[in-house]
Write a structure and sequence with these properties.
Radius of gyration: 23 Å
GO biological process, one term: transmembrane transport
Order of helices and strands: HHHHHHHHHHH
Largest sheet: none
Number of domains: 1
Structural class: mainly alpha
Subcellular location: Cell membrane
Protein name: ABC-type spermidine/putrescine transport system permease subunit II
InterPro entries: Bact_Polyamine_Transport, MetI-like, MetI-like_sf
CATH class: Mainly Alpha
Number of helices: 11
Keywords: Cell membrane, Membrane, Transmembrane, Transmembrane helix, Transport
CATH superfamily: MetI-like
């Protein structure tokens, strides 16, 4: 009887886990299923299935241009956030630096500020420095939002790094710059790789900051939002499904590569 009651909490947690998983996957499954509907509207039952919506999306010049534009912004924001985040992480772990807690808190602040508040403040900032809205402003906003995630991942990796590695490099004649590029940076590789993938996914998915900082050229979320204003259709579901599949594949690949690099 005692073992029966002991197993009850585990069974409850298992049931809650599967219920939560169903809650997450059911809307996505319905969205993907509707992208195959052979009709111009979204409703059950699906009836006949077709791939015409995917063919139409892949031939949509506006959709392809928005994808390339989003990838370009994500690449620029990722490089900027990785450089800044690595520098901040190195500054926090450096010897003789005071106020490490304050530096860490300020670096992570963009991750905890609500997206709407962050977007409004960034819009005020770019207006104050006379920066026009558009590509540069979007990259700035996405970089600010992505830096905290790079800082956290780099710090986690740096705190497991044996201190004698850098000391050995300096004993062999390497200065601080050479020791960083030959020892510290390769050790940070798995963490930075995961952080960069995370930055790319954040940037491509960012809508609020792009909405406040964007110009006339739409990113992928802005394009989907504009199409939704004209009414839901299986074409929008096909776009969302393609984005979901690609981002999930990139995320899983990054997780696999990061785990393998850490094992090595």
């Amino acid at each position: 009887m005692r073992y029966m009651f002991a197993d009850a909490p585990r069974a409850t947690l298992t049931a809650c886990y599967w219920a939560f998983l169903l809650y997450l996957l059911l809307p996505l499954t319905l969205m993907m299923a509707m992208s195959f509907k052979d009709a111009n509207f979204i409703a059950f039952p699906i009836g006949e299935w077709t791939l015409d919506w995917y063919v139409k999306v892949m031939q949509d010049k506006q959709f392809l241009e928005a994808c390339l534009y989003s990838i370009m912004i994500a690449a620029a924001a990722t490089v900027s956030a990785t450089v800044l985040g690595t520098w901040i992480a190195m500054l926090i772990v450096a010897e003789g630096i005071r106020g490490r807690v304050v530096i860490f808190a300020l670096a992570c602040l963009p991750a905890v500020v609500p997206g709407m508040i962050s977007a409004i403040s960034l819009r005020i900032f770019v207006s104050a420095i006379d920066m026009p809205t558009g590509t540069a402003a979007i990259i700035l906003g996405h970089t600010v939002h992505a830096v905290p995630f790079v800082v956290v991942m780099a710090l986690t990796r740096l705190r497991t790094m044996p201190g004698n590695l850098v000391d050995a490099a300096r004993d062999l004649g390497a200065d601080s710059v050479v020791a960083f590029f030959r020892v510290t940076l390769p050790y940070l590789g798995p963490a930075l790789f995961g952080g960069m993938i995370f930055c790319v996914l954040l940037s491509i998915d960012d809508f609020v900051r792009t909405f406040f900082l964007g110009g006339y050229r739409p990113t992928l979320p802005m394009l989907i939002f504009a199409k939704v204003q004209g009414g839901m259709s299986p074409e929008i579901n096909a776009m969302a499904t393609l984005v979901l599949v690609v981002t999930a594949a990139v995320g899983l690949y990054a997780e696999f590569m990061t785990r393998r690099a850490r094992t090595r």
